[in-house]
Each structure stands twice: as structure tokens, then as C-alpha cells.
């Protein structure tokens, strides 16, 4: 797509004025397995762009597609946004599992993408149009596992992971590395597939190892029966989780089994970051529930895109790509966010623990 004159404005920064609305695409898992995150992401994006559209000079039109947690649907949604809607940038998809091929399609079409929850290894390396504000699992686990070791006095762990999904297998590889760096002994290492609901054979082996903690890389649909079965089998060790655990939906479903769960992430309601208190209030006002990490990352994506558009007062693909690549030290609800050369996010992770059914800051 060539540059559209109506998206190239005059002035700069707060004084920038662009004639046409900037078309922003979003591909989210609004239904099926990853909707636990996709629904919060939808709300965070809508709130973020609503606030931006109330400002002078630049308007955004948000075109949202549901990938139904399915790769084929995700590819079709990207195709529509790139070629038919002429989106200037695409936000999402929710799952890393859908990101590898969709981001390659966007890269080939020179359309910038901003991942907001795609945390697997290797995503920014797909190309120079690929960015993310999704804290990589690598950074989150490098904080959460040592914090858990210290807080809980861990010596041994059992690891369980979904070996089918891109994000859970990538996080698993990172977990094994960090566990070894931390001198934690792995007494059992078991795996399963995304749609499994029966975990008793793996859990029996884990019970035999009597670990001090379970380290779990799984999506919610498997996690909920898995943790329930673990507790039924008498395994009451605390859990250290991956990014999917940054969800109040997951915590509510796990009920008392979630107590003591430790997880590293990109955001906490307790963060004293710029605009965080106002964001939480506005979100509760709009949606009648508190935001989660996925909502905060989505909300932040809107602000990052606005900063990139206003930098050269240009809402075309090429300008957004060039200016996202230079985003440096933006103050957001996630804290200070920068993007490096590769399009990777630079921000301080937080570590949280579940106490009385609520996330509480362990450190960050
Ligand atoms: C990924 C994730 C998921 C847990 C997002 C919902 O981190 O797929 O990378």
C-alpha cells in the first residue's frame, strides 16, 4: 500500500493534526480458549482509543476481529486487515501460537504489528515490522523463579508443561534454564497436550518426587483441571506459573488452589506508574470490573501507537513502523516502556503472589 495523503498531517506531538482517522486493526481471541485474556484486551483497547479520540488532532478507527483462538481464523483476520481494511498497524493476536505465521504475513506486507500478550521467544526477530509490549516469558521467569525460591525456601521442583502450544513450550524451555541457573533440582518433568483434561498419570509421578513447588507452563483450560487433580491427589505444593496465570479468571477458577501462586508479569494494580490509578478507575467505571495485566498491556498499546503517530504526525504504516522503532522511555501504566532495535520491549517486570484470592506484589 502506498502512503495515504489523508493520514499525513501537519504539526507535531500534541499539536499534530491528521485529516483521516488512522485505521488500527486488532486481532484478538474474543471467544474460545484464550478469551480469558482476549476479552480484557478488547476492553483495554477500547478504553485506550476512546481516551485518545477525545483529544484534539488525531482520531483512530479501531477494527477488531475475533480469531476464535484458531490459527486459520487468525490468518484470515490478518489478511482482511492488511489487504482490505488497509490497517496502518495491527495489534494482537492474543496467543504466541497464532503470532508466528500471522506476523510473517504482516512482515511480508510491510504492515507493522504490536503484540500485547505474545511472550514466546523469537517473536521480535520475525522482522523489522514486528514489535511487542508483551513482556517476554524469559524476563518474567528470570524474576519470578528466584523470587519464589527465596520466598518459599525452595530446593526441589516438578515441572509440567503443554508441549503442543508455542508459548507454553517456549516458556518451558526458559523455565528449565532458569531452574538450572538457580540451582533448583527438577525431581519430575512431565508434559501433556493443549486439549487434555486428565493428568493423573503425570501427577502420580510428580507426587512420588515430593517437590517443594510445581512449575507450570499451561493455558487455563488445562490448568484448571490439572491443579484440581493435583490437590485431590494430595499434592499441595505452591505453584509458580507462566504468563497465563496473570489472569483473575484463572485465579477465580482455581479458587483456594491458587493461594500462594507466584507469577511474573508486566503490570500490577499496585504499581505506582503514570496514570495507573486513573486507568483502574476509568476501567471499573466503563466495564464494572477491575482491569488485569492483559487489559493494561492493551491500553498501553494504544498510547504507544499514538506516540508513534504523533512523532512525525503521520498515520501511515511506514511512519508508524519507523517511530515505534524509536520509542524510548514512554511513561505508561506498565511503567517506563521502550522498544529496542529488534522491536522488543524494555520494561521492569513485577512478581506477584496470590493471597486471599487477590494478586499482591511480591516485588517489582
Ligand atoms: C502467549 C501468552 C498467553 C498466555 C497469552 C494469553 O503469553 O501466548 O505468549
Average pLDDT number: 96
State the distance separating the first and last CA atoms: 43 Å
CATH architecture of the largest domain: 3-Layer(aba) Sandwich
- The CATH class of the largest domain is identified as Alpha Beta
The number of helical elements comes to: 11
Name given to the CATH homologous superfamily of the largest domain: Response regulator
Helix/sheet category: alpha/beta
- By DSSP, the count of extended strands is 15
Report the biggest beta sheet as strand number plus sense, adding barrel if it closes.
7 strands, mixed
Number of domains: 2
Order of helices and strands: EHEHEHEEHEHEHEHEHEHHHEEEEE
- Residues in helices, as a percent range: 40-55%
Which ligands occur here?
Answer: (3S)-3-methyl-2-oxopentanoic acid
How would the global form be characterised? Answer: elongated
* CATH fold type of the largest domain: Rossmann fold
Low-confidence stretches: none
Estimate what percentage of residues fall within beta strands. Answer: 15-25%
Radius of gyration: 20 Å
Strand order of the largest sheet: 7-6-8-9-10-14-15
Q: What report would you give on this structure?
A:
By secondary structure, this protein is α/β, with parallel strands linked by helices. The protein has helices at 35-53, 71-84, 96-108, 137-152, 166-181, 200-209, 220-232, 248-254, 276-287, 293-312, 317-324; strands at residues 22-28, 60-66, 89-91, 113-115, 130-132, 156-162, 185-192, 213-217, 239-241, 262-265, 330-332, 335-339, 345-346, 350-355, 358-363. It folds into two domains: 5-135 and 272-346, Rossmann fold (3-Layer(aba) Sandwich); 138-265, Rossmann fold. 41% of the residues lie in helices and 20% in strands. The strands form three sheets. Strands 7-6-8-9-10-14-15 form a seven-stranded mixed beta sheet, with helices on both faces. Strands 2-1-3-4-5 form a five-stranded parallel beta sheet, with helices on both faces. The longest helix is centred in the C-terminal third of the chain and has 20 residues, at 293-312. The relative contact order is 0.15. The mean pLDDT is 96. Residues 34, 37, 94-96, 117-120, 167, 243-244 line the site of (3S)-3-methyl-2-oxopentanoic acid.
